[in-house]
Amino acid sequence: MTEPARLLELAVSAALTAGEFLLDARPADLVVATKSTPTDVVTQMDTAAERLISTAIRSSRPDDAMLGEEGQDAGASDGRRVRWIVDPIDGTVNYLYGLPQWSVSIAAEVSGVVVAGAVFDPSKGELFTAERGVGAWLNGVPISVSGCSELAQALVGTGFGYDAARRGRQAQVLTGVLPLVRDIRRLGAASLDLCWLACGRLDGYFERGLGVWDYSAAALIATQAGARVEGLHGRAPSGDLLVAGSGRLFPALHDLVAELGADRD
Ligand code: LIP
Predict the structure, then answer these.
(1) CA 46 to ligand 1 centroid distance, Å
(2) Which of 69, 160, 202, 238 could form a disulfide with 213 if both were Cys (CB 3.0 to 4.6 A apart)?
(3) Taking the complete model, does pTM exceed 0.85, yes or no?
């Protein structure tokens, strides 16, 4: 078994363990704290799930680095070859409200390149996986992006930040996109937006302000399913902007959001 395949196996095992815990042990009274703004929330389940994932991974690979949204950060890579990038609950607000659109996202990075990714959606029992250079799968079945090539026919996902001023700017960008596409979907979990793009449930996606833990695993899944997932003008995707679409749709969506200044507050 190749190293990426072994890393993917560990990512899947940890994601399934954490996902089942989050679904089965979700308490009625979630304890909520806030982070960057009063609506950027974290619950005791986010931190508990991240601890579960860290324990599961470190029991097999104690020397790897880890970057987790809730603070499981054993230093950046600091020279360590393998780094795990973890979002224990992507779609935390959906989880808080009991909306079935959230995931556990785990990516394995080797020498700075993500080679394996797992995104588990426990509410639907859907496990999205990918291994660089091999493929992308939903519950073990190969997946691929839609054939949509026209912006006017495209169902496009997006999302909004937690800061009111940024949301106002994002609303302005949205008014420029909405008349030119089939429709917009704001589902609340970037990892699932990208996985849904990977299996043809969305044709395009863009969002500003994401954390690397939101998209690292799902970006690999989407690219291995035939999507382009980039920043503007050939840059890598980042918190500045992530744009994704099939090879035929991507240029039109990219040029539209670039023209609208979607990478600026
Ligand atoms: C969420 C993203 C989503 C974005 C939300 C939030 P979190 O991540 O997955 O795409 O629109 O504002 O950032 O905070 O639930 O891990």
Answers:
(1) 13
(2) 69
(3) yes
Q: Using CA atoms, how far apart are residues 127 and 125, in angstroms rounded to an integer?
A: 7
CA of 3 to the centre of ligand 1 (A): 30
Considering the chain, what is the average pLDDT of its residues? 95
CA of 219 to the centre of ligand 1 (A): 15
Residues with CB under 6 A from ligand 1: 69, 87, 90-92, 159-162, 188-190, 207, 214
For residues 214 and 194, give the distance between their C-alpha atoms in angstroms, rounded to a whole number. 10
Q: Which is the closest atom of ligand 1 to the Cα of 211?
A: 13
**151-259 fold:** D-Maltodextrin-Binding Protein; domain 2 (3.40.190)
Pick the CATH number of 3-142 from 3.30.540.10, 3.40.367.20, 1.10.10.10, 3.90.78.10: 3.30.540.10
Q: Where are the alpha helices (DSSP H) in 129-198?
A: 164-177, 190-198
Q: How far apart are CA 148 and CA 134, in angstroms?
A: 24
Q: How confident is the model at residue 123 (pLDDT cuts 50, 70, 90)?
A: very high
pLDDT band at 240 (very low <50, low <70, confident <90, very high): very high
pLDDT tens track for 21-41: 999 999 988 888 888 888 888
Asked if residue 118 lies in contact with residue 217, where contact means CB atoms within 8 angstroms, the answer is yes
Separation of 187 CA from ligand 1 center, angstroms?
9
